[in-house]
Amino acid sequence: MTIERAGVIGCGLMGSGIAEVLARAGLSVVVRDISDEAVAAGRKRIEKSFAKGVERGKMTEQERDEALGRLTFTTELSAMADRQLVIEAASENEDIKKKIFAELDAIVTDEQAILASNTSSMPIIRFAQATSRPERVLGLHFFNPAPVQPLVEIISSVVTAPEVADQIETFSTQVLGKTPIRSDDRPGFIVNALLIPFLFSAIRMLESGHASKEDIDTGMVNGCAHPMGPIKLADMVGLDTCLFVGQSIYDETGDPAAKPPVLLSRMVDGGLLGAKTGKGFYDW
Ligand code: 3HC
């Protein structure tokens, strides 16, 4: 099966980036979110990114227009009926995600369709079990900003059919132009299992008064050639996302390095979520 028709559930930071990647790769993409406002914000985010792509010489104006023409925005989940690949990128809430998978299972007609989750850390098996086709469910995890970061993680649950993961690996490489890596269905998969303890160490360093956020970030940028420092990166990922991911790794493993720092929890409670709300550790 050649995947030509894709769907994305949720057009927040990650969903809109994933939709953009798929549309730029030539697929027809239906993007669904729950409200007209959310859909409008997602479309705006994609248009802004396309504009940056044109400005940076990554795409021509014609390519931008063609990619935009391949995108359809909706609030109706039923629009996923004819999709061959649906990537769920809703908020990191297990009950919401399970409900979406159960609904998709009833809506998506093609038995060969693949249902994927972009979850950052939740067990894929729980979403698979919400469907009647658990062997066709897997994790396909993109990195922020999705149009720029080359990596995708492919996560097989204990019941994912090997040919489904193989097909997504070929698709990721040949159609999306991404670099896939494979992970077991373990908390944080590969990247977040390493990244979250690092980001939390940096936040604890700041919290304890050990160093300023600027010096922590400059240290890792200029000392270790990271493209951005950990405090700024936490802001970019979203402090709420960092909190959810850390909590979910901590709950399952008890790893103290993944325990969310108190400062992070307080900032999330205070609505300081980073770049997406304009204020986090930095002003954006
Ligand atoms: N479309 C196409 N290309 C674009 C683009 C767009 N909208 N925006 C930028 N680019 C390209 C630029 O042209 C440039 O390409 P070049 O290197 O070939 O010239 C490249 O992307 C970098 O863009 P900029 O020059 O605008 O930006 P910076 O150099 O300041 O880099 C950054 C910005 C890419 C965000 C970089 O700082 C970075 O990589 N930071 C780290 C990001 C990271 O670690 N992400 C992972 C987070 S973890 C995650 O997402 C997992 C989740 O589960 C928590």
From TrEMBL:
Keywords: Oxidoreductase
Pfam families associated with the record: 3HCDH, 3HCDH_N
Keyword Zinc: no
Top-level taxon in the UniProt lineage: Bacteria
Transmembrane segment boundaries: none
Domain 3-hydroxyacyl-CoA dehydrogenase NAD binding: 6-185
Domain 3-hydroxyacyl-CoA dehydrogenase C-terminal: 188-284
Gene3D superfamilies, per the entry: N-(1-d-carboxylethyl)-l-norvaline Dehydrogenase, domain 2, NAD(P)-binding Rossmann-like Domain
Membership in a protein family: Belongs to the 3-hydroxyacyl-CoA dehydrogenase family.
Protein name, UniProt field: 3-hydroxybutyryl-CoA dehydrogenase
Species assigned in the record: Brevibacterium gallinarum
